[in-house]
Amino acid sequence: MRLQTGASAVAFAAAASATSLSEVCTVSNVKAALPSNGTILGVNVLPSLATANTATSDSYSYCNVTVTYTHPGKGDTVVVKYALPEPSDYKKRFYVAGGGGYTLSSTSTGGLEYGAVGGATSAGYGALDGTTYDEVVLYGNGSINWDATHMFGYQALGEMTKLGKYFTKGFYGQSASSKLYTYYEGCSDGGREGMSQIQRYGDEYDGAITGAPAFRYGQQQVNHLLPNAVEHTLDYYPPPAPSPRSSTRPSRHATLSTAVPTASSPVVTSVC
């Protein structure tokens, strides 16, 4: 981590010795912890737009920070928000959460229970406000919005993580050589997002949980539509399943009795 001089160095020293959230959760400390332009390739931070305020989530107190940056030559703005735990709760951990469907995660507080800093990103198209990728993938003339596609696909989370890790060390007054353990967790499209992060930003992570990754869109989405297409083509729509109370319905116990788990045969399930 490359520290700035003057007032920034003073703020860094203050953060290193701070013991309370109110001492570190200030705009001046946030600005001092941000990287100078050129530190992270393709990311120019706009320090004047940084915000900081204390907040509470599920009984955890944290510093709610927003940082805005732009991509040189693009004329865009990307807002990222971070939830930083109390200095006494901070465990030198950074947590990245995945989204689902066509959404990126809009919540930054998922890491607080682990003593970790968490983040979320607007991706440059309003993802923090609930805008989904399918709403912005096409321009009015039908051409592809490649900036949004790249940001949703991998770039937004990668930049949020690299910027967040740099910022976190400065915020808490850690040295550049200190370890900041970083973990990813996501399922479905969140699993796909996790795979993209490990593939493209693997050096940033120490572990990842990538459940049911939504890969191979060309096949996956066609398979989602196949049953409806077959029904429409054949003009045949299967009748509803018999009522559970119907006397003609086979006994569930007769078919599943041998599959009931016992203490010696545990069953583990995972649901996204």
Automatic annotation (TrEMBL):
Its EC number is 3.1.1.-. InterPro entries: Tannase/feruloyl_esterase (IPR011118). The keyword Zinc-finger does not apply. It holds the Pfam family Tannase. Keywords: Disulfide bond, Hydrolase, Serine esterase, Signal. Residues 237-272 are annotated as: Disordered. Transmembrane segments: none annotated. Residues 1-18 form the signal peptide. It is an enzyme of class 3 (hydrolase). Coiled coil: none annotated. Residues 257-272 have a biased composition (Low complexity). One of its GO terms (molecular function) is carboxylic ester hydrolase activity. PANTHER family: CARBOXYLIC ESTER HYDROLASE (PTHR33938:SF7), FERULOYL ESTERASE B-RELATED (PTHR33938). Belongs to the tannase family. This is Carboxylic ester hydrolase. The lineage of its organism: Eukaryota, Fungi, Dikarya, Ascomycota, Pezizomycotina.
